[in-house]
Amino acid sequence: MKDYIFELPMKVRSYECDFESIVNNAVYQNYLEHTRHEFLIAHGLDVVELHRQGIDTVVARINIAFKSSLHDNEEFLSKLNVKKEGLKYVFYQDIYRKKDEKLIIKATVDIVCIINGKLGNSDIIDNLFAEYLQ
Q1: Which of 38, 60, 61, 117 has the fewest C-beta atoms under 10 angstroms from its C-beta?
Q2: Number of other residues whose CB lies within 10 A of the CB of residue 117
């Protein structure tokens, strides 16, 4: 999916790298989550406030294809799109190195809502993202 609805510039920090000065594979999940959180914030949605209302958004599944590596101090763009399939929100997230636009990872992240302890639909989220979930 190449039609992105949100983009977040970031930079690799030294402590995120292994002894070869490449980003550790587990760190990419942090980049993806940070991008999703910033996307929600940009749309006026606060996950802490949602939690206080009994609505928790949780990762149900994540699939990451590693295409290339980022290195210490490199700038990159984390991009996403979202659609809804049944009860889950499917985030399509790609990361590109900024200087040459090289694809670094492709990820698909399934998010579900737990409402007062039970799997369910969130009207709050559905309404907020209606334009994207058509």
Answers
A1: 117
A2: 8
What are the residue boundaries of the structural domains of the chain, listed by start?
6-128
Among residues 67, 90, 69, 68, the alpha carbon closest in space to that of 80 is found at 90
Q: Is the per-residue pLDDT at 2 higher than 80?
A: no
**6-128 CATH, one of 3.10.129.10, 3.40.30.10, 3.30.450.40, 3.30.1330.10:** 3.10.129.10
H/E element, 52: helix 47-52
CB atoms within 10 A of CB 66: 13
Lookup result for tokens 């949780």: 58
Question: Percentage of the chain with pLDDT > 70?
Answer: 98
Q: Report the alpha-carbon distance of residue 4 to residue 70 in Å, rounded.
A: 21
Q: Is 124 helix (H, G, I), strand (E, B) or coil?
A: helix
DSSP calls for 67-114 = -S--BTT-EEEEEEEEEEETTEEEEEEEEEETTT--EEEEEEEEEEEE
